[in-house]
Design goal:
The structure holds two protein chains of two kinds. Chain A contains eight helices and two strands; from the N terminus they run αααββααααα. Chain A is mostly helical. Chain A has a two-stranded antiparallel ribbon. The longest helix of chain B is centred in the last third of the chain and has 16 residues. In chain B, α3 runs parallel beside α5. By secondary structure, chain B is of the alpha/beta class. In chain B, a hairpin with a 2-residue loop joins β9 and β10. Chain B is globular, with a radius of gyration of 18 Å. Chain B is built from six helices and ten strands; from the N terminus they run βββαββαβαααβαβββ. The chains are: A mainly alpha, B alpha/beta. The interface between A and B is medium-sized, with 24 and 22 residues.
Chain lengths: ~240, ~220
């Protein structure tokens, strides 16, 4: 499937997740999103990779859920014990925010598996100025780079018999900064050399550029894109009507 | 003497490409074993298998006479020090001094004068004392490699697996590496070295093997 089709799916699902205003609608959207992810990444390897990528963010979603639940004080009282009071609106908002975040994370995770150059060509296919395409594609490239660098760091900790979980709490902050700082610095160093490489290759030297690889949409790309766009307008129409 | 590693009929494929086809190899705990071969023959793959990073092989590997697959990775890292091919991947700290300090305190203890003294001696021996406080990413590839090799001196009691340790080292760096290896061997420990230049290790190597066409053959040393 063409990277442009991935982009269309991502843009439509993420936009819908922001405009939906009920838990049921968000649940339906989440189901659609899971179907898409399942349909587009049917291999076990990709699912495992996706799970590894999302599991830490799921903890964050859970944390946000608890915060919303505890600190939203509107609506009916659903539960009360000691200083903990749960309200109906808190429960509703907590669910909505969590499902929305889950949809966004799942759908954006599709984009991270697109090779950098495909991403660039997909954006160029929409006639977006090359500078913008490069900036957007580079963002994904650097996320990948950070991911790799963090994996290397994790391996290196293991090779040195360092179990991060067993480091005393008061030393954890020092350990974390000592580990993360070189990762960031190394990434910035790479960015610098990448900028030099771009200049050497004549970035922005000519008004137009040509591409060695061309990305053409296939018949199923057209069908998926049309279905997605039509579904988007239909949902928007139904939402506005209600 | 029982071998430290014993590989029996080991086969390994990567993306349907056969890397090893039923190879047999024994590595002794107190010997320096050199594995040579051209690019892409499987030297790094063998190092990764020996360190337990690749487990989808066929055949048997015995480590300390136990089935390698049944051994926990924590135990392996407590017995083996592994230096990867890509120099950067072996470094964790922001400066050579900090990187070596992490090897010492492992974030469990506070850095102290005794640690600093040992570190200074090691930095001096590896000829990187002057670069001790410079950012790792600002060092040359050779200087980074020296920092990595210096870290071996904190792992004297372990068996070493060194993947292409000569890469980017100058002649002075190579001499430092050879002296570290000779001392390691004298203390009764061994190493497995993957390299394209086996002759460089002829003075310290006990056995030299060559990987060729998915097989491994001993080309020099004790039989």
């Amino acid at each position: 499937m063409n990277a442009r089709t991935y982009l269309v799916i991502t843009i439509i699902i993420s936009t819908l997740s922001l405009v939906q205003r009920s838990v049921t609608q968000l649940c339906i959207l989440l189901a659609v999103c899971v179907l898409f992810v399942g349909f587009l990444s049917p291999t076990k390897k990709r699912f495992v990779h996706l799970w590894k990528r999302l599991r830490f963010l799921l903890i964050l979603i859970l944390f946000i859920f608890i915060l919303q639940l505890l600190f939203r004080h509107h609506g009916e009282v659903l539960f009360h014990w000691s200083f903990i009071t749960l309200y109906s609106e808190g429960m509703l908002i907590a669910f909505m925010v969590s499902i929305r975040l889950l949809i966004l994370l799942l759908i954006v995770s599709l984009l991270f598996d697109i090779p950098y150059y495909d991403f660039l060509l997909a954006l160029r296919g929409w006639k977006i100025p090359y500078e913008f395409c490069l900036m957007i594609a580079s963002t994904f490239y650097f996320v990948h780079m950070f991911e790799d660098q963090l994996k290397t760091t994790k391996d290196q900790l293991r090779f040195r018999e360092i179990n991060f979980g067993k480091i005393p709490l008061f030393r954890k902050f020092h350990a974390f900064s000592a580990i993360i700082f070189p990762v960031l610095a190394h990434a910035m160093h790479t960015v610098r050399y990448r900028a030099i490489a771009l200049d050497i290759k004549g970035f922005r030297l000519h008004p137009n550029r040509t591409y060695y690889i061309s990305q053409k949409l296939k018949w199923f790309d057209y069908i998926i894109q049309i279905i997605c766009v039509l579904s988007f307008f239909l949902v928007m129409y139904l939402l506005l009507k209600s | 003497m029982n071998p430290y590693f014993s590989l029996q009929n080991l086969s390994f494929s990567y993306n349907d490409k056969s890397i090893f086809n039923e190879i047999n190899l024994e590595i002794q705990r107190n010997e320096v074993t050199v594995i040579s071969g051209e690019n892409g023959t499987g030297k790094t793959t063998l190092c990764k298998i020996l360190f337990g990073l690749l487990t989808q092989y066929k055949g048997n590997i015995a480590f300390e006479e136990k089935d390698f697959l049944s051994i926990d990775q924590t135990y392996i890292t407590s017995k083996i020090a592994y230096i990867q091919e890509q120099t950067q991947n072996n470094l964790l700290g922001a400066t050579p001094n900090e990187d070596l300090a992490i090897w010492q305190h492992k974030f469990q203890k506070k850095d102290n004068d005794q640690f600093k003294e040992t570190r200074d001696a090691i930095l001096k021996r590896s000829d990187i004392k002057e670069q001790a406080e410079k950012p790792i990413w600002a060092l040359s590839a050779g200087q980074q490699k020296r920092v990595v090799l210096a870290s071996l001196l904190f792992n004297k009691e372990k068996f070493w697996i060194l993947d292409d340790p000569l890469f980017s080292l100058d002649s002075k760096g190579i001499n430092i590496l050879l002296s570290i290896l000779a001392q390691h061997k004298l203390s009764g420990s061994g190493a497995c070295i993957a390299t394209q230049r086996p002759k460089t290790f002829s003075l310290v190597a006990d056995r030299i093997y060559e990987i060729k066409d998915t097989t491994i053959e001993q080309i020099a040393g004790n039989r």
